[in-house]
Amino acid sequence: MRKVKEDFPASNEFVYMNAAAISLKPVQVINAMSDFMEKYEASGTINFRDSLEEEVLDNARLRISELIGCESDNIALTTNTSEGINFIAYAIKFGRGNNVVTTDLEFPTVTYPWLKIARERGVEVRFALNRNGIVSVEDLEKLVDDNTRVIALSHVEYSSGLRFNLKEIADLAHRHGAILVVDAVQSLGVIPLDVRREDVDTLASAAYKWLLGPFGAGFVYMKKEFYENVEPLFVGWRSSIEHEEYDPIKFTLPETARKFEYGGMPYTPIYGLTKAIEYILGLGVENIRDHVMNLTQKLIDELNGLGAQILTPLNREQRAGIVSARFDKMDYDKVIEELAKKRIIVSKRMNALRISPHVYNTEEDVNEVIEALKKLLNKKSFANKIGSNDILIL
User: Fold this and answer.
1) How far is CA 363 from CA 96, 295, 367, in A?
2) What's the mean pLDDT in 77-97?
3) Are 369 and 342 in contact (CB under 8 A)?
4) Which of 12, 295, 313, 386 is exposed most, by the fewest CB atoms within 10 A?
5) Which residue from 313, 271, 293, 308 is spatially nearest to 366, judged by alpha carbons?
6) For the chain, what are the domain ranges?
């Protein structure tokens, strides 16, 4: 993957291991978006015709469908994961006594829509509680019953890096007649995913993390049996199959997931998402996974050697690109600040150090992170500077 590093100029200036927050972008995506904006958006309708609008959107849906193993009709384009989850949540009908099962590891994007629906419709939200960053399928099973309408969770948890077996959870949901709703923003681009094989009902993601794409673009996947039986909460001029006629009276929803695309679209970000997926498909998601798994294994081994508690599962089948490590009495904010001074970029989540390498990282990058941590953990002058109780000197 050394040649890949050349596609990410920032990776030569920084040891950037924060893809779980925002990934670096390849020059191919940056240049494509710049060219698109200059050629089309900058000149209004001189070059940007209706046919091109549809071509941009169709190409995006096609590439997304290739990435996750579905048909273009299953895809609706969005601006981010939150929008996609809300599209799904407010399309589902709830009855008296229904409940939603999720976990306490989730990013608020996954839980807030259901908590709002609970207030509005009297639905119960049940949380499976983690133990040191882990929630098992058995933990979920204890909460699921025949009144469960939805199981909502992340494919990969943003904090601990736990990766769920989606097929097992889909089977659990379907045994009780429930719908599986997945946030895939921390897995797509680094972990191969076939939504049909995993029997996922619905899924949402954004472009700017592991997919190497821009802000302002995302998508939602809906199984045919789902989108055929729901109505969108929002409608707009693009909601009708006659939208190019601008007829204020004719109103016919598409018979695909596109019924959820209701207004003007962020064409440049969507174009960037398409190019990012093409870049990923060109490298091969399996190749990216293998490379990142090797880096995360090295991180886990080295962090163990420093005395860290590893919150991320050690089993490769239960993790992706995130390694979460906890040190006794560490002030993570100050450590992250000191690492940034050395041009090493990581983050803090769940009161732990979160390190998330991607395709542009190397073993040398891992070595730099570990050596920098060793120096901070053993540097008494550093401890004295930030306060004796802020960090444990190991």
Assistant:
1) 54, 6, 6
2) 98
3) no
4) 12
5) 293
6) 2-20+285-386, 28-282
Both structure tokens of 41: 């958006």
Report the pLDDT value the prediction gives residue 3, as an integer from 0 to 100. Answer: 86
Tens digit of each residue's pLDDT (9 = 90 or more) over 114-173: 999 999 999 999 999 999 999 999 999 999 999 999 999 999 999 999 999 999 999 999
CATH number for the segment(s) 28-282: 3.40.640.10
Beta bridge partners of 354: 324, 347
Q: What is the pLDDT of residues 92-111, one digit of tens each?
A: 999 999 999 999 999 999 99
What SS3 class is residue 73?
A: helix
| 2-20+285-386 CATH | 3.90.1150.10
Is 70 exceeded by the pLDDT of residue 306? yes
Contacts of 285 (CB under 8 A, 6+ apart): 67, 189, 190, 191, 192
DSSP string, 68-86: HTS-GGGEEEESSHHHHHH
How many Å apart are CA 325 and CA 333, to the nearest integer?
14
Let me know if the fold of 2-20+285-386 is the same as that of 28-282.
no
Which residues sit opposite 251 in a β-bridge? none
Structure tokens at 121: 């419709």
**Predicted TM-score of the model (pTM):** 0.93
pLDDT of res. 379: 72
Nearest to 186 by CA among 270, 110, 281, 88: 110
Q: How far is 185 from 206, CA to CA, in rounded Å?
A: 6
Neighbours of 130 (CB within 10 A): 20
- Say if strands 309-310 and 99-103 run parallel, antiparallel, or are unpaired: unpaired
| End-to-end alpha carbon distance in the chain | 34
In angstroms, what CA-CA distances link 252 with 75, 78, 225, 228, 235? Answer: 18, 20, 19, 14, 11
d(CA 287, CA 274): 19
| Contact between residue 210 and residue 358 where contact means Cβ atoms under 8 Å apart | yes
